[in-house]
Amino acid sequence: MNILVLSRDPHLYSTNRLVEAAEEHGHTVRVIDPLRCYMTIASQRPTIHYKGEELKDIDAIIPRIGASITFYGTAVVRQFEMMGVYSINESVAISRSRDKLRSLQLLARKGIGLPVTGFAHSTQYTNDLIDLAGGAPLVIKLLEGTQGIGVVLAETNKAAESVIEAFRGLKENILVQEFIKEAEGADLRCFVIGEKVVAAMKRQGKEGEFRSNLHRGGSSSVARLTPEERSTAVRAARIMGLNVAGVDLLRSNHGPVVMEVNSSPGLEGIEKATDKDVAGMIIEFIEKQGKPGRTQTRGRG
Ligand code: ADP
Q1: Nearest CA residue ID for atom 25, ligand 1
Q2: Domain residues of the chain, as ranges?
Q3: Ligand 1: residues whose CB is within 6 Å?
Q4: Which is the closest atom of ligand 1 to the Cα of 146?
Q5: Is it true that 2-87 and 117-179 share their CATH fold?
Q6: Is 117-179 in CATH node 1.10.10.10?
Q7: What is the pLDDT of residues 223-262, one digit of tens each?
Q8: How far is ligand 1, taken at its centre, from the CA of residue 211, in Å?
């Protein structure tokens, strides 16, 4: 097959591994920077050009679209879809997963376990918002944060009030969430491909830290999932319409709860923690599913 990896950086571990795995499976593969693609929008024959060349005869694309380039990146993916090229994750699903509120609303509608969550932009009724989320201890998050930055634990209602007010000053959208204390600073990253969790790791925050992000000094190890955790992860990916997804779960007293569904999950952490060839499994999925025109909007769960 002729495969493109859409990635800004060919030197990233994930990009490299996908290229390596595609070559091992006998495919032709190139890394293309989506921001350098330009396109014609025409109903008869939409095209994509890259550095003066028209991209033709592509069988499948693997989008690795970073959060900061979601808008243009998904437009490029959509253009490939218009050309009938198979995309392992569809543009609609990527956009959907990038919007945290929309994602939580979709998951809630389908009955997926979630931490009790309130959200607001600029309410003056801080105490009411705190009550809605069940009262302290609470986790308060900036909607746009990543790698655990902008995620704060407020142990008392008073602290929660101060944090919400400070965030409000930033004119940011915020989430106020039940603190899952019993998770004990750990979360589960479930790597889903198609209808299966193909690898799972437990990330544990360092001593005294409730955030398990590896960037914040957390450590990872292989996780053994319960059947309920597996099915929650697979359903969450399906509801979002993602064939490849990193589903983050917390182990709560009321069962597994989903924190986030990621459409470009990193390969380095999961491959190293589990010693599995996740990149190879992504390529094998494309070999089975990647037929022209297969791209369609799923996500109806
Ligand atoms: P980011 O997307 O910036 O990584 P997350 O929402 O994933 O932010 O939160 C970072 C970490 O904080 C999570 O990996 C988890 O360990 C912890 N955490 C987040 N929300 C909760 C919660 N409601 N209860 C307990 N721990 C949480």
Answers
A1: 180
A2: 2-87, 96-112+182-285, 117-179
A3: 115, 139, 141, 145-148, 151, 177-180, 183, 187, 210-213, 248, 250, 259-260
A4: 3
A5: no
A6: no
A7: 999 999 999 999 999 999 999 999 999 999 999 999 999 9
A8: 6
Least Cα distance to 139 among 39, 4, 192, 148 occurs for 148
Whether the CB-CB separation of 232 and 256 falls below 8 Å is answered with yes
- CATH number for region 96-112+182-285: 3.30.470.20
CATH of 2-87, one of 3.40.50.20, 3.30.200.20, 3.40.50.1980, 1.10.150.20: 3.40.50.20
Identity at 217, one-letter amino acid code: G
Q: Which atom of ligand 1 is nearest to the CA of 149?
A: 3
Residue type, 149: I
173 Cα–ligand 1 center, Å: 16
Rounded CA separation 140/166 (Å): 11
Q: For the CA atoms of 202, 206, 211, 213, what is the dihedral angle to 10 degrees?
A: -60
Quickly state the pLDDT bin for 45 (edges 50, 70, 90): confident
